Amino acid sequence: MTTQNRITLDPKVLLGKPVVRGTRISVDFVLDLLARGWSETQICEEYPGLERDDILACCGYAAALLRGEKVYPLPA
């Protein structure tokens, strides 16, 4: 499973924020639910349009962004 099949960016949907394909549910919203302690089961029950693989794709998308992040030390 790749995030390319599950996560889309469309300037006409939520101003181009990454969303789960076929929904208006943003990646950051799903990550926020997980950070608040929601389980995959709770998320899928509350948002029936989502599947477990969508949640995993959101996590994968965020991980890919962080992998590409460059960190530069500040001078002392």
Explain the overall architecture.
The chain is mainly alpha-helical and 76 residues long. The chain has one domain: Winged helix-like DNA-binding domain superfamily/Winged helix DNA-binding domain (Arc Repressor Mutant, subunit A). The protein is 47% helix and 5% strand. The chain contains four helices and two strands; from the N terminus they run αββααα. It has a two-stranded antiparallel ribbon with strand order 1-2. α2 crosses α4. The longest helix is centred in the C-terminal third of the chain and has 16 residues. The protein is globular and about 50 Å long. The mean pLDDT is 93.
Question: Which key features would you list for this structure?
Answer:
4 helices, mainly alpha, two-stranded antiparallel ribbon, 2 strands, single chain, 76 residues, Arc Repressor Mutant, subunit A
Helix-strand pattern? HEEHHH
Rg computed from alpha carbons, rounded to a whole number of angstroms: 14 Å
Biggest sheet details: 2 strands, antiparallel
Q: Helix share of residues?
A: 40-55%
Instruction: Determine the number of helices (DSSP H or I, runs of at least 4 residues).
Output: 4
**CATH superfamily membership, which one?**
Winged helix-like DNA-binding domain superfamily/Winged helix DNA-binding domain
- Number of extended strands: 2
Number of domains: 1
**Which regions have little confidence, pLDDT < 50, spanning 5+ residues?**
none
Mean pLDDT: 93
Would you tell me which CATH topology applies?
Arc Repressor Mutant, subunit A
Supply the CATH architecture: Orthogonal Bundle
**Assigned CATH class:** Mainly Alpha
Shape: globular
Taking the alpha carbons of the first and last residues, their distance comes to 44 Å
Strand content: 5-15%
Q: Structural class of the secondary structure composition?
A: mainly alpha
Strand order of the largest sheet: 1-2
